[in-house]
What does this fold into?
Amino acid sequence: MLSLFILKKSNIMKGIRFSEYIPDINSGGSFEELLKIFLQLLTITSGDVTEALNWMNQIDQKYNLTNNSYGMGNFIQELKDRNYIEENEIEKILTMTLKSEQAIRKQSLEEIFGKLKKGFMGNHRTNHSGLGDEATSDRREYYFGDLMEQIDITGSIKNSQINHGIDDFQLTENDIEVEERDFKTLTSTVLMIDISHSMILYGEDRITPAKKVAMALSELITTKYPKDTLDIIVFGNDAWPIEIKDLPYLQVGPYHTNTVAGLDLAINILKRRKTTNKQIFMITDGKPTCLKEGVKYYKNSFGLDKKIMNKTLDMAARSRRLGIPITTYMIARDSYLQKFVREFTKTNNGRAFYSNITGLGDFVFEDYIRNRRKRLR
It folds into this structure.
């Protein structure tokens, strides 16, 4: 078994001295530190408080999360006192509260968006200038119809002094300098999440990062861009919308992948939106394997069924005709799947990313911000 070592600076000589790390048995996390772990576990367990606390107890036994003065019992009681969990008086079952749901979304946002926000300031903008409310560093001459609040007073006076001299001060139309403004755009986004059984197959949990991305994106939009809209739908054998508050509890089911049903619902939602910019983000790890024909399901678990593929491509073409780009985030790298995704993307004139589960959030957020800075249509 490998021992853990730490690095210490030596005061006697230059260099670094290695010594065995012996943890302090009295050291332990604060409530805030334990809460971060607890919220992560709640996401993984789909909101099962009891299972999350059982995992925390096991982790505590192995890694000493708590100490002699603050134990796991204290942490559980503080979760109740601070209204993160509550106990059903009749069934004696611990459940999450609204405060926990909000905390999970906020933590997901900080975890994913925190790595990107240093390179991004302010609200979303397009690259088109005009009558907006976001000033830029650009200046131009005055045109009839420009608003008074757009006039750069300092720059205009400076121009007057240059053009007419200090002794003969006058401000003409040609001296006036106007601040450029950026148009702000409103965007309607539908986020599609694959909840077919393959999202937890092969020993890899793919649904948890998908949920984190959805929660982080919803928190970003509701707090920073409240005029934008975000609809979230899940698709398996069928497709249906879910509320933001449902995300922590989302689970994979014994489903096939009916991508057609998901796209059809997403397009119908966006057709009702009055915004100019509309887009679909689709998170999936598998190939379409299902169609619904009337009340019956047509399935082919082996995938690449021509009937299913053609229907899926038809939906991509329909979305393109409506001016709705689809960005596909494939949590899989199988060559035969990539070939289909390339054809799907070409048909829609959209984009595709092939991501692992750790890089999914970066892709989604960077793409959302990039799309908000330009007109999609």
User: Anything to note?
Assistant: Residues 129-182 form one domain. The first strand starts at residue 5 and ends at 9. Confidence is low (pLDDT under 50) at residues 1-13, 117-134. The longest helix spans residues 207-224.
